[in-house]
Q: What sequence folds into this?
């Protein structure tokens, strides 16, 4: 797993085993088939209907279109295979779409009954979060690391945070302010359009990765039925403080590098 500010890193894949050298269309089709099966099971076994099916399949279709369009553009020279690592990330994206589908019809979610609705949301979220790190491990193990994979992983992570924040609001566990936990990545991207020096690459950081894990874990815990709104508010505030420290440290590092670069050019 990479952090939301580790976009321009990764290395080109080399010596890929044949079993993991999948094409992007194959990975998209195979994951789409599994997603369709999951939607069919939801509609048949639980009180979900057309809104959920449209949301899941529509969001997965949009994700697939972006992946197919961007893979060729973002791939490193010689990187022709989509690969198993990216396929795992794509499955995580499909799970995020499935989680979104559970939330678009609050009446159907309530009809699941009692705390079961909250636990259903938590289960899907944990599955997506649990696969985070698997794609990175596969990339390192099979020499599949790439710039595209790093970016794809970051964006799926960011989408998971947004959907989890929506889940916390829909299930009544938190107010709209919980979206502050998920807005850091997009806020950083917006800030880079105003201050281009923020677009410089950052060195990999275990602490930054830990902050993402804290964000996602906090949002999953908030969605759990036993957690009260008071506890949810406290957890959210504590995690926001961690985010502020992390972003502040990275912005300071980038500002110093930009200042040093400007000074060097001025001499």
A:
């Amino acid at each position: 797993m990479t952090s939301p500010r580790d976009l321009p890193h990764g290395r080109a894949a080399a010596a890929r085993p044949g079993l993991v050298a999948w094409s992007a269309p194959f990975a998209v089709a195979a994951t789409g088939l599994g997603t369709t099966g999951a939607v069919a099971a939801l509609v048949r076994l639980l009180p979900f209907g057309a809104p959920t099916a449209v949301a899941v399949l529509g969001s997965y279709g949009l994700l697939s279109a972006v992946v197919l369009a961007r893979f060729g553009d973002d791939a490193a020279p010689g990187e022709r295979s989509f690969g198993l690592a990216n396929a795992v990330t794509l499955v995580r994206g499909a799970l995020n779409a499935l989680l979104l589908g559970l939330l678009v019809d609050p009446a159907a979610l309530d009809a699941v009954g009692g705390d079961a609705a909250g636990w259903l949301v938590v289960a899907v979220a944990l599955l997506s979060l649990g696969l985070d790190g698997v794609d990175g491990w596969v990339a390192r193990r099979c020499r599949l690391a790439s710039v595209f994979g790093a970016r794809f992983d970051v964006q799926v992570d960011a989408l998971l945070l947004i959907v989890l924040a929506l889940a916390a609001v829909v299930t009544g566990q938190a107010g709209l302010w919980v979206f502050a936990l998920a807005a850091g990545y997009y806020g950083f991207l917006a800030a880079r359009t105003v201050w281009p020096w923020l677009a410089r690459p950052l060195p990999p950081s275990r602490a930054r990765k830990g902050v993402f894990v804290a964000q996602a874990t906090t949002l999953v815990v908030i969605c759990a039925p036993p957690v009260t709104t008071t506890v949810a508010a406290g957890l959210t505030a504590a995690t926001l403080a961690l985010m502020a420290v992390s972003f502040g440290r990275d912005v300071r590092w980038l500002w110093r590098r930009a200042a040093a670069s400007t000074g060097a050019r001025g001499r």
Q: What stands out?
A: The longest helix spans residues 229-266.
